[in-house]
Amino acid sequence: MNVHIHRGGQQHGPYHLDQVKAWLVSGELSASVMASVDGGSSWIPVHCIPEIRNDESLANVIRTATSTNLEVESQIIEETLKGIEELVSNTDPAALANIQTRLHWKLRILHKQVYSLKAEFPESVEARVHEAALYSAQARAKLTSVGGWRKSQMRANNMAWGIVSGMMANQQEKNNALQALPLFDKALSINDNANDRLIKAYLFKELKQPENALRELNYIIANFPGDSLYMSARQFKDEIEIA
C-alpha cells in the first residue's frame, strides 16, 4: 500500500505504509495529517486508514488525533463554527483584509475537521450536518466582501446572518454573490434548512431575480411552518410582492 500525504499546502509521496507508520511512531508525522491511499482521490486523516487504525502499536499515536468520541469531535467543529461566526459578524471595513485572511485559515481548519469526522463516523447524522455547515460557511465567506451585513433572525449551525438591502455596489460583489449561491445549494442538498434558503432569497432579490427569491420563500413557507424563520419568510415575501 502506498500513501500520499498532504501538508504545508502540498502533496507528498507516495510513501510505503510501513514508512508512514515509522514516521507516526517517531513523531515526524501527525496522525491527523490528511492522506490518500494508492492514488485515490479521497483524502482522509492518516489515523483513519484501516491498516493504521487497527494497528494496536499505534493506539497512543491515534489518541493524539482523535477522541474517537462522536460528541466530542462534533463539539470541536462547533467551536470552529463559532470562530467563523465571529469573523463574519465583524462589519468594520478597516478590518476587512485581516478578517478575510483569518476566515480563509478558519475555513481550512473546518474543512479538515469535517472530512475527518466523515471519515471516522461516515454514517452519522452529525457528519452530514457539519458537511452542510461547511458549504454554508464557504458561501458566507464569499459574502464578506459584499457590502454590509446585519444581524437578523436567521440561524444555521450558530451562523446567523442576513444581507442588507442594496448591498451590491459593483460587479465583483455580484460575482461573489453568484459564487455563493451554488455553495448554498450544496449545503441544502445535504441538509435542507430554512436559514440558507432565506439567505438565497435575499441574494436573488439583490440580483434582481424576484421570481427566484419568491420560489425560495414559498418553499420555506410550505415546508418549514414551525421554523422560527417562518415569519421572516412571510414578511419578506410580502415586501417583494408589493415592490
Note down, in words, how this protein is organized.
This protein is an alpha+beta fold and about 240 residues long. It folds into 2 domains: about 1-65, GYF domain (Dna Ligase, domain 1), CATH 3.30.1490; about 70-240, Serine Threonine Protein Phosphatase 5, Tetratricopeptide repeat (Alpha Horseshoe). The chain is about 60% helix and about 15% strand. The chain is built from 10 helices and 6 strands, in the order ββαββαααααββαααα. The strands form 2 sheets. The protein has a 4-stranded antiparallel β-sheet with strand order 2-1-3-4. It has a two-stranded antiparallel ribbon with strand order 5-6. α4 (about 70-90) packs parallel to α6, α7 (about 170-190) runs antiparallel to α8 and α8 runs antiparallel to α9 (about 210-225). The N and C termini lie far apart (about 65 Å).
